[in-house]
TrEMBL record:
InterPro entries named in the record: P-loop_NTPase
Protein's recorded name: Uncharacterized protein
Species classification: Eukaryota, Metazoa, Spiralia, Lophotrochozoa, Mollusca
SUPFAM superfamilies registered for this protein in UniProt: P-loop containing nucleoside triphosphate hydrolases
Length: 144
């Protein structure tokens, strides 16, 4: 079966998947990208140039940051910091268990879209609808 909304996926030039469980001592997204992606993919002598490339990507192309497991991240801050990262080309998707949202430090003003998953019968269809709603602000997720 073919994915029907290739145009939606093509808007994202990069996806950065961050496991918050594996970033217990870090507070900034770019540091997490360094340790979880750059340090594991590149040789040590290429780390600095790879990091510069990531920063250039973040300034120039559409990308998605998936922050997985907010409930498993014991950071002092309520959310990992995106300070200094241009947000013009970025969509952040953060996963967590519902009880974490009861943390009074998480302000509604920092959440654009909130949805509760109770089970997914068709993961491909679900992903297509979510991506379409994230990229088209006029599309209501409830109608998708």
């Amino acid at each position: 079966m073919m994915f029907g909304d290739v145009d939606t996926l093509q808007k994202f030039r990069f996806l950065f998947f961050i496991s918050l469980r594996d970033s217990r001592e870090q507070t900034h997204v770019t540091q997490m990208i360094k340790t979880q992606l750059i340090y594991k993919i590149y040789a040590e002598d290429e780390w600095e140039s790879a990091y510069k490339l990531v920063l250039k990507i973040m300034k120039n192309v559409m990308y998605l940051v998936v922050q997985d497991g907010l409930d498993e991240w014991p950071g002092e801050e309520v959310l990992p910091s995106m300070d200094g990262i241009p947000k013009d080309h970025c969509i952040v998707l953060t996963t967590t268990r519902p009880w974490k949202l009861a943390d009074e430090r998480i302000r509604n003003s920092r959440i654009d879209i909130l949805f509760d998953l109770e089970g997914i019968s068709d993961p491909k269809e679900f992903n297509e609808k979510i991506l379409r709603c994230l990229l088209d602000e006029s599309n209501d997720i409830k109608k998708a």
